[in-house]
Amino acid sequence: MTILLxxxxxxxxxPVRSLPGDYVPDSVPPESVSKNLPVVSTFPSELTAEGLISxxxxxxxxxxxxxxxxxNAEALGNRIEKMTGLDLDLVxxxxxxxxxxxxxxxxxxxxxxxxxxxxxxSPGKAKYxxxxxxxxxxxxxxxxxxxxxVAETDETGSVSESSVTPEAESVPAAQIIPADGMQDSPALLxxxxxxxxxAQPTKWQKFKNIFVLKGDSQWLNRYNYFGKSVALVNALIIxxxxxxxxxxxxxxxxxxxxxxxEKEAKLRQYLLEQYQGLIIDYLFGNSGSDxxxxxxxxxxxxxxxxxxxxxxxVNLKGDSRxxxxxxxxxxxxxxxxxxxxxxxxxxxxIKGFRELAFMGIREGNEEMIxxxxxxxxxxxxxxxxxxxxxxxxxxxxxxxxxxxxxxxWEQITLHxxxxxxxxxxxxxxxxxxxxxxxxxxxxxxxxxxxxQKEAEPEMKKVMLHRDLRVSKLAVEVAGDMDMxxxxxxxxxxxxxxxxxxxxxxVKSMGKMPDTSMLGFLKLVLDKEDDVxxxxxxxxxxxxxxxxGVQALVKLMKSEYKNYNIIVRHVLDRRIY
Length: 576
Known about the structure:
This protein is mainly alpha-helical. The chain contains 22 helices and 7 strands. The chain folds into 5 domains: 1-16 and 202-222, no CATH class; 18-199, no CATH class; 228-265; 427-512, Leucine-rich Repeat Variant (Alpha Horseshoe); 516-576, no CATH class.
């Protein structure tokens, strides 16, 4: 910060120079001013616009000004072109933009520098012009011959003032610069004598210019060191200052927010303890609901009271729970929960669903059903749990409305909910025909979990499901539950299934051995090239008991030797 402030105040002390005309002032550092070069004047003290046009027809390169900014040079050139009808050229040289007439003669003929001013300037510019005119008149009184007057070439970019108008208004004396750059002359004059005096800004103006980005602000100056601009440095300094200010504001906001959160946490903990005592006194008949009226008038305290009532309701049943629900409705806390359940923000919806579910309020069920097909997986799960809690008879009715994928984690959560709360188990075969494959898979798992073997007729249809995952799981469940009526269906579907499903069919046949499948399994052993399929087929034959073992021994004695090692491997009791 010390370095930045030093740079800022040092920039404020830079000289400020104003330029007349329609162009914006260029700022040129004092270091860039070249030494005075002696030149010879060959023109009278006044030059009219007609004289300028006549002079342009000679063998001279005439320079009208030099600027740091291209826009200023273009503005000067355009104005002179309108006044005189001459063609002016813009030449970039030494980091400056110079306005020339007959620029093609530069270096081949003498160069003339004509300082220009326009009529009708602002008061500040008029003062500038008067100072220039006084300086010119002062030197005009001195007797100088055509070979004695000396002036400075326009290499600094500063522009002295004279008049060039269509009405042939007079201008100060033109100055001729020889092509070789310097000539000896008996009488030498300082070019700075022709420069008008400019009022320097006060200290307050310099300090004020530090914080603005217009006018004479030092942030708008361009300095060239070894041909490179440091304008980027100014931008970086401003960026650093802005970054420090933003960090300070952000740090202040974070600290204030942290302090607020700490106060709220302490107040919340205190209120939870107080409200818990009030709720217990209310439930056991030692106090009425009037003690909660003042609490319910404040939003923050209302939310703390709702959270505490939900925590207490977890361990309540029967009359106590109903009494707490009545208090919840009497204090109109249910409106807060419904507003959250209908909110567009998913985290507020979840909080509203939980509050309604724990308090047994069913007014938000429609919103929960709409959330079953939300893209947000957490919101879907919370809606499912809330609907299970709020249902009296059919706790799993929501499965009929589910269109989104029913993830394995959601299925596990729902199964745990059934076990923990001892919910009545529905007949899951009703969802085997669901259009949602994940719902069908959940129903298959629940049929296996709760041993609902009466779903065996529907299992035959599910095995032929278009989704291969469902078909594979149906074959697996049928084998685990010993549904032998499905064996024929497995046999028919075998040749139309992919490898994993075929392997599962052979495994399921091994789980429920039936001699009617002996021929099919021998065919699998003989025709399949996959070793794993052959091993599972031999295992299924062996599980048929004595009949299966004798069939395997007979196969070993046959002339086909390619699967003898597989049969010996399965019959070796040392392995299994």
